[in-house]
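Subgroup meeting minutes
Present: P.N., E.W., G.H.
Scribe: E.W.

1. P.N. recapped why we're keeping a running log of single-chain structure predictions: easier to compare across weeks, and new members can see raw inputs and outputs side by side.
2. G.H. added today's entry (201 aa).
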Amino acid sequence: MERVKFGVFGGTFDPPHNGHLALARAARRALGLDAVLWVLTPMPPHKPDREFAPLADRLAMVQAIVGREPAFLLSRVDIDRPPPHFAVDTMHLLRQQNPEAELIYLMGEDSLRDLPFWHRPKEFLSVCDALGVMRRPGVQVDLTALERVLPGVGAKIRWVEAPLCALASSEIRRRIQRGESVEAYLPPPVLEIVERRRLYR
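Output recorded in log:
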């Protein structure tokens, strides 16, 4: 009997946009995932000085996306524990919650490149069944050098041909601050929350 296959899609989702949605859908198709777990990170350790929209607002926006697609699930694994929220600890907790599942951590090619600088990277790699890596425009990863630092990483990579999305949440926030339309970039239920709660003004 095949194991249930989950993709782990983490982020601050500030706000979650159409690019996130396209990447999650592409990963699900390419990797044959039973579900994508959206892991909302309240306060990422590598962004200590950045201000984020209130967690309740980001949670509402992610729930608005997840609620529309049966193969998307919200994971509260980082929400329900104190910081710091390192990916290695997140994966250990997800492994405890889903001992029979195959857990594939979804990341961009830029994150794969920077993986040696993550918190306890070898341990993180060992707790992931695979890495679903989405190509990024202009990013080149030296896999030979990466393998020297993290032996076995190459065997765990599953490339995902995702739509190239240059859109970043930071640019959406800037556009909202300038009073520009972001209708083309946000799923309708997310846009409704942003406007109703006057986020990023």
